[in-house]
Amino acid sequence: MLPLRDNPLPACAPPPAEFSLDERAWLLRLAHDSIAAALSRAHLEPVVPWPHLAVPRAAFTTLHLDARLRGCVGFVQALRPLHRTVAETAVAAAFQDPRFLPVSREEVSLLQVEISVLSPLAEIAPEAVVVGRHGLVVSQGFRRGLLLPQVAVEHGWDRLTLLRETCRKAGLEDDAWRHGAVVEAFTAEVFGDQDFSAPLV
């Protein structure tokens, strides 16, 4: 059987940035500080300098070490203020991602953090999915899989591959999106330590 592929849909202009450079830097520092505090069993209660960051938002925190994934955890629904979401997902990515051993004390200062702040989910027709713009959630019954927008770009996937891999993430058949699975999309504002010349640790 030939691989399932099609031509990537044309890229569209990204939406205007919602978060300023100062807000992005503050959230990234909060992620680093939250991981360090959790490792030391210290209590961290940050003073949020912008009300904008206290609005409930869904977000994921992704950790890399030596350019390799070291953890990724997030909330799909806007259940908590954004600053709490970032703090909690950073700690969970460091110590509770079941794919990895907990981050060690020696690794903490070497971690690279990336934050993805998500838009609300909306059901989407598979043919309307745009690689690089849309992250996907595919669900059927009790199974659900999610892939962030940047994943398809990092792997060079086309639209059909993105749909297939999201189905696999949910533990479904590759073509479940053709057979009753619900496909939902979201966009994300993605920023990380790599966007700043000075270390944010």
Could you give the distance between the termini?
A: 48 Å
Number of contiguous helices: 5
In the CATH classification, which architecture of the largest domain applies? 2-Layer Sandwich
Largest β sheet strand count, sense and barrel closure: 4 strands, antiparallel
What do we call the CATH homologous superfamily of the largest domain?
Hypothetical protein ph0010, domain 1
Strand order of the largest sheet: 2-1-3-8
CATH class of the largest domain: Alpha Beta
- Which range does the strand content fall in? 15-25%
Number of domains: 2
Instruction: State mean pLDDT (0 to 100 scale).
Output: 91
Helix content: 25-40%
Q: Give the H and E element order.
A: HEEHHEEEEHHEE
Q: Structural class, judged by helices and strands?
A: alpha+beta
* Number of E strands: 8
Report the radius of gyration as a whole number of Å: 17 Å
How does the overall form come out from the CA principal axes?
A: globular
* Multimeric status of the protein: single chain
CATH topology of the largest domain: Glycoprotein, Type 4 Pilin
**Low-pLDDT ranges:** 1-12
